[in-house]
Amino acid sequence: xxxxxxxxxxxxxxxxxxxxxxxxxxxxxxxxxxxxxxxxxxxxxxxxxxxxxxxxxxxxxxxxxxxxxxxxxxxxxxxxxxxxxxxxxxxxxxxxxxxxxxxxxxxxxxxxxxxxxxxxxxxxxxxxxxxxxxxxxxxxxxxxxxxxxxxxxxxxxxxxxxxxxxxxxxxxxxxxxxxxxxxxxxxxxxxxxxxxxxxxxxxxxxxxxxxxxxxxxxxxxxxxxxxxxxxxxxxxxxxxxxxxxxxxxxxxxxxxxxxxxxxxxxxxxxxxxxxxxxxxxxxxxxxxxxx
Length: 291
Ligand code: SF4
Description:
By secondary structure, the protein is of the alpha/beta class. It has 2 domains: 245 residues, 3-Layer(aba) Sandwich (Rossmann fold), CATH 3.40.50; 30 residues, no CATH class. Helix content is 35%, strand content 15%. An 8-stranded mixed beta sheet has the order 2-1-3-4-6-5-8-7, with helices on both faces. Strand 7, helix 9 and strand 8 form a beta-alpha-beta unit. The structure holds iron/sulfur cluster (SF4).
């Protein structure tokens, strides 16, 4: 009897397959997003995450379909609004683990006005961006991370705009965890995602996730030989070294570029709430305080 009770109190170790929903992904065969989804399953299993205490938030795009394929709570929102929705959920219930997912078009174009602010606020959420350097769902237009002279339907003679560097933007905007993954390295990506989820604060994981249908330049063959693991000698608390790694354009470092700790937005809001509760000022007192 005693032994039975002990067995019943052991926590259940969930396997990657336990996080898979009944919905089958409808991405094109070979799409990089499959690798990201599998890495997420592995990371959730490594952390033995409780699906009932986890929320996935997405915007619009191929990769934003991801919450439907996972047995957590999910919020498939409007275009570019992953971060404000995720921020609201985390502030409303700080006990939840909140993970934003989406693509480069969703996050770095229409959602760009939210990105640096989530970084500077250091809200405790993880943001996984499946960066395929193109708009896939709308059938192939140039995105902010497309390379120069990239030919698409919107740039038939080549892209004449510069390329946005999300890693550097995150670092200089105040993000406390900045990493890059590659969908073709799922074990390493799973480790990065697990570290990002564990990190207290805003964690960006930008993932090279090739669009095999519309991007014929940044393909799996293109990345072969160009990606490499960040050496163990790299100090992730060194902001300048992290910026230099993020600057590289010919070869692409994979791993954690930057990681530091400072108070999170949700921690600070909790302190302010407690203070307001203790002091319990009247509306009139508050009004006078800010006159
Ligand atoms: Fe993936 Fe591209 Fe197909 Fe979208 S269009 S599912 S990004 S391969």
